[in-house]
Amino acid sequence: MKKLWETIDGKLLKGLPNPANGYEQYVDIPEFTFMGVHDQPDFGHIRMWFHGEKTTIELKSLKEYLFQYRDTIISYERAINVMYKHLMDAYKPFRLRLEIQFRPRGGISSTMKADSDWAHMGGSDKLWQHHKE
Predict the structure, then answer these.
(1) Is 84 helix (H, G, I), strand (E, B) or coil?
(2) Which DSSP string corresponds to 14-25?
(3) pLDDT in tens for each of the 133 residues of the chain?
(4) Which helix (H) or strand (E) holds 45?
């Protein structure tokens, strides 16, 4: 039996030809909605730093992709993992930094981050090492 989060279709993400290399696209999504693990509405703020190569993000398809989460029961960790994988598969960017700040629940908030430069995410840690200095 498929888990609900497995029904989120990454193929909804569409790209546009990248007009030029060497720029950063910043995407800010202040109203990300999904179903929390206790079947209660949950909310987050997505920030994405995208360095495309051949394609860039078509924002309408990103919006349609994110609508799938509204009725999906998913944990914070699973949400960022699924979203990160779909974005990487769809766009194959030079670099992607994804951050989701989840709204407080029970007085506690949480922020999850993923960065394609991190070695455990398949990167080289080259940019991360420079950032830490």
Answers:
(1) helix
(2) -EEE-S-SS--E
(3) 456 778 899 999 999 998 887 788 999 999 999 998 777 889 999 999 999 988 899 999 999 999 999 989 999 999 999 999 999 999 999 999 999 999 987 888 899 999 988 666 665 666 555 444 4
(4) strand 41-51
The strand pairing partners of 112, in sequence order, are 100
Structure tokens at 44: 């987050």
Task: For tokens 């924002």, name the residue.
Answer: 59
Model-level pTM?
0.87
Spatial strand order of the sheet with 95-105 comes to 25-35, 41-51, 95-105, 108-115
Residue 132: which residues within 8 A CB-CB, separation 6 or more? none
| Among candidate residues 62, 61, 83, the one with its CA nearest the CA of residue 72 | 83
**AA letter at 64:** E
